[in-house]
Design goal:
Helix content is 77%, strand content 0%. By secondary structure, the protein is mostly helical. The chain folds into 2 domains: 89 residues; 51 residues. It is rod-shaped and about 150 Å long. About 7% of the residues have low confidence.
């Protein structure tokens, strides 16, 4: 018998040619992978740079906010200090005025007129000067004392 001869489509497709084609294909894949790795590195570096820039912006903004808060705190502290001093001065002035009115006897016109008991009666306060016991409520006692001081000065 005769050997059967099958014609080959690519007569040059021998083992060396297949190895050469495979090597070229492997090199192309390696170059594509290297390009992808470098591109990913550039994208990552760009993202890091953007994050660093955002972080620096946030740090500057935070420093500005802290400085503003410190300024407002100082201003508030100064304002409160001024209020404390003015209240202290008012309390001192009030204490001096109370000592002065306690030291001076009431004017006869104010005491004799009976205006304070009448006013206390109209206001519905329980304690009346000289007729009953002093009021039990501290607020009423304070109101009566303030009214006495006002009448002693000749004011309403």
């Amino acid at each position: 018998m005769m050997p059967i001869h099958i014609p080959t489509v690519l007569p040059t497709l021998d083992m060396h040619t297949v190895l050469l084609g495979s090597t070229i294909l492997d090199l192309a894949a390696i170059f594509v992978l290297a390009w992808l790795v470098r591109r990913a590195g550039r994208v990552r570096d760009a993202a890091r740079a953007a994050q660093r820039e955002a972080l620096e912006t946030l740090r500057r903004d935070l420093a500005t906010l802290v400085a503003d808060a410190e300024d407002r705190t100082r201003a508030l502290e100064e304002s409160l200090g001024r209020r404390e001093r003015s209240l202290s001065a008012l309390l001192t002035k009030l204490e001096r005025a109370e000592r002065k009115t306690d030291a001076t006897p009431p004017r006869p016109a104010a005491a004799a007129s009976g205006a304070l008991p009448e006013l206390a009666r109209r206001l519905g306060l329980r304690g009346k000067r000289g007729s009953e016991a002093p009021p039990e409520d501290p607020a009423e006692a304070r109101l009566l004392r303030d009214l006495e001081i006002g009448l002693a000065r000749g004011t309403r």
